[in-house]
Amino acid sequence: MNPATCFDQKSGRQVLWETVVGAVDYADKIGDAATKTGVSTTRLQEFEYAAVQSGTSFDGVVQALVFLNRNLYEASTAGGEAAAAFAQLGIKVKDTTGKLREPADVFLDLADAIEKVPEGAARSALAMKVLGRSGAELVPMLSMGKEGLEALRAEAWAMGAILKPDDLVRA
């Protein structure tokens, strides 16, 4: 038996194994994030792509969405600082039927609001009011505005970077 052939076969199997393990780990990561944030696995993958393209982290996006959920609930029930922060940014926390809005939609509205704020400390401060400490990390991503994030969303789909929910479940 040729040793070079054995090495090639072994490395091929190893690559296949690493690919399968990577897919399972990725599916777990996205599924866990969806559970924590209440955001769909599809939208989370789109946000992950935008985060990578803007030099921010997916973990930061997840932490920010968790904090956003807390603030949405607080603003809708108790008012207070959370309600004031959303009002300052011109973001509605409830839809026309009085239900709490989806966090992914509010996140996109926040991106539009942050994009309009002059660069500097004010952007970070406002992002942190709504998203917690992760808000400062996400300023480069949020500064693209909703239109920029939607463009990256389309790019991610065009490149095949988004797995459909059924594919995530199978992984």
Architecture blueprint of SSEs:
Blueprint (H helix, E strand, L loop, with lengths): L2 H35 L3 H14 L3 H20 L2 H10 L13 H14 L4 H11 L2 H4 L1 H4 L2 H14 L6 H6 L1
Helix pairs in contact: 2-9, 3-4, 5-9
Description:
This protein has 171 residues and is an all-alpha fold. The protein has ten helices and no strands. The model has no long low-confidence stretch (mean pLDDT 90).
Q: Features of this protein?
A:
171 residues; mainly alpha
> What does the main sheet amount to?
none
Order of helices and strands: HHHHHHHHHH
Overall outline: elongated
Number of strands: 0
Poorly predicted segments: none
Helix content: over 70%
**Separation, N- and C-terminal Cα atoms:** 35 Å
What gyration radius follows from the Cα positions, in whole Å?
A: 20 Å
Helices and strands: which structural class? mainly alpha
- Our count of helices gives 10
What number is the mean pLDDT? 90
Percentage of residues in strands: under 5%
Provide a brief overview of the structure.
The protein is 77% helix and 0% strand. By secondary structure, the protein is mainly α.
